[in-house]
Design goal:
Rossmann fold, seven-stranded mixed sheet, globular, alpha/beta, four-stranded parallel sheet, homodimer
């Protein structure tokens, strides 16, 4: 049989490791003839843009580079499939291309939308009694908001980047003798996992971050200013970590509600991120030295400080997906089940892809303090195992090397 | 004799390595009784806030952590000394404190302003015929704009961070099939060294960055838009690196001139950085997918990806400063003299601190292309040796450990 693998949604540091895991398990199985990579997600199936991965990953150095390359070597897409009961033409074409190429199993690595694709396509296959084609989902997201799994590949590396960087920023912000406030904005429009992960610093004896704000609680200007003033009585350099998606009591994004009416030089609606807004707020209302820092896409692409646990388990869940395929599975998403925090151990199982599709796993309210400006120790136990270990980059000319598949 | 060391100006990844170099050379010399650290630059001398470094750095692990800790473990200051001919009281107090503590040599690690302090204080000593106290400057700046030295400690690590991060962002920006523009803003208000260093990526076969803008040339909206449109015909994901300090034909900061009159939600003058401004410009005028990324303080504090060449040579120039002190030097700044690019070699010498003070070393115009939107191969030869090698962080709980001196 032949198989195909595609990647979808936002880039991460671990999505290529999951691709590597499927690829390596398939190659070693002796059960697979051709391993196709589909370019730009499921669009590569539709448009028949397939590459022969066995030719592209043909030595161990390339395999090792694949594990260390951020983003998605096969490219990505953001496509939500239509309802096949209304229009099945997209589904018919996908099935046709898979059959033409003798592809029996299609592995789709992605987040919510990709699992929606897995769920819809497997339902289509079932309804049409097609059993020579199957689809299996493999989770991926730095936001860690996928339901049906303890955590998602890509999150651990993003969290390790956030922790290491917040720690370095804490050093940097403390060099002057005057009081200062530093606001660090993380990704996470709906779920606060990444911002919350910065609590790990305290395991190393750091007092920072002094305030952590998540979308799961209510954010107010008054509460924020009072919190900052309070922390300034205890710390010379106050470090605040805030999720991009913190919300007001009205349930709106704080950055949008607080800046309504603001336009940019071009007369367009202008929205600074919440970090920049809070910087301006502190400057106006407290008047101390203040800086905002947006961690931006570095959170999802800083492979040079990837978590070994994340990369290893991303590879393992890819391999497990291939094993599940050999057992005849379809329409499922691979899932991590945590067995223990200390020592950390997990198993890999499958859940119905529909369980993960179109829903979001929020940061648990019971792990947030009463004031809504910090997280509780239970969170450390959850996060710490996910950021352990380093994957040394392969360097050339002083810079990390990546694998590029054109 | 006793000695004192202080750190000044903006934080870097290498300023603690220079401190380590002076400390270790002094300790091994057998010629020094007490090695003092002065807290918050020269203010620690004035206020007599001195710590005994031999007690604080009392084992090899702490020494190794010192080499790997960003910012400035002794704290910093931004103080420009008054003219001693107008008011010598500050100078008199400094001299008094140094004498009280038996400090014969004061080592000052910093940038332009610190070298101004070295120059002024040594002139004061000379004019007043004081020869029992001396001062020696050690260069430091991520901006690489210090005159009198081939390069400055701290720059190589900042450049390595910029190169590695721009490369990872280039991967990240290329995952979708639609055209996009990514604008990356680096530090450098007057000199473009950091932005220019991103050219090193091409040594690894990367086409990015596709455009590089420096403060040394003239920046215009029309030229920028034409350049971007031109690059979009060649590359799906166009990567632009821009110095925060690019200037208009009128010699004003582009970010300021282009946004004059813009106010924020608080009614204050609002200036987005040049990167964010260019993002809005591309969105308004070209209308494609566009993102801006400010590398912010991560450029100066990301010790986890420090350049080994930078850290080693920062330590070496610290040790050389101590050797210069033993030879009776004063009023000088330590300086790197490059002997060869391939293989890279340098020597360390001294220059008059006044030569480095109050002047800036700009990126050479002859290394910039005719269009003013890229740099020439001579720049690669200059930059590449400075970003070589890695200093592995010492990790605990999955995060880098730092040394903190309270």
């Amino acid at each position: 049989m032949n198989i195909a693998i595609a990647q979808s949604g936002g880039p991460t540091c671990a999505i290529n490791a999951s691709l590597a895991g499927v690829f390596e398990a398939a190659r070693n199985s002796g059960a697979v003839d051709k391993i196709f990579g589909s370019l730009n997600g499921i669009e590569g199936i539709f448009d028949e843009k397939l590459v022969n991965l066995t030719e592209r990953i043909n030595d161990d150095v390339k395999y090792q580079l694949l594990l260390r390359t951020p983003s998605a070597v096969l490219g990505s897409c953001r496509r939500k499939l239509p309802d096949y009961k209304v229009d099945s033409s997209y589904y018919d074409k996908i099935t046709q291309v898979l059959r033409w190429n003798g592809i029996e199993v299609f592995f789709y690595i992605g987040g919510n939308d990709s699992m929606d694709t897995v769920a819809k396509y497997s339902e289509y296959l079932r309804e049409n009694e097609i059993d020579d084609v199957r689809i299996i989902g493999i989770p991926k997201t730095i936001d860690n908001d996928l339901c049906g799994t303890d955590h998602s590949p890509g999150f651990g590396s993003a969290a390790k980047y956030v922790c290491s960087t917040v720690q370095e920023i804490a050093r940097d912000s403390n060099v002057y003798s005057i009081p200062s406030v530093t606001v660090i904005e993380t990704m996470g429009r709906h779920a606060g996992w990444l911002a919350a992960s910065s609590c790990c610093l305290r395991a190393n004896g750091e007092s920072a971050p002094h305030l952590i704000y998540l979308p799961e609680t209510t954010f107010s200007i008054e509460g924020f200013l009072a919190d900052v003033k309070n922390q300034m009585t205890k710390h010379k350099g106050v470090i605040v970590v805030v999720s991009e998606g913190v919300k007001t009591a009205e349930g709106k994004f704080a950055a949008e509600q607080f800046q309504s009416g603001q336009v940019d030089t071009f007369g367009h609606v202008y929205l600074a991120g919440i970090g920049k807004f809070l910087e301006k707020l502190v400057a106006a209302e407290i008047g101390c030295k203040v800086r905002s820092i947006e961690l931006n896409v570095m959170q999802r692409c800083s492979s040079h400080i990837a978590s070994k646990e994340d990369i290893d388990s991303a590879e393992a869940i890819g391999a497990a997906a291939f094993e599940a395929a050999l057992k005849g599975k379809s329409g499922c998403m691979m899932s991590f089940v945590r067995k223990s925090n200390k020592p950390y151990s997990y198993s890999i199982t499958t859940v119905d892809a529909a369980e993960a599709a179109n829903s979001e796993k929020f940061f648990p309210l019971e792990w947030i303090n009463e004031e809504g400006n910090d997280v509780l120790p239970a969170a450390y136990d959850y996060f710490l195992p996910l950021i352990q270990g380093e994957v040394m980059p392969i360097m050339k000319n002083g810079m990390p090397l990546h694998l590029v598949i054109e």
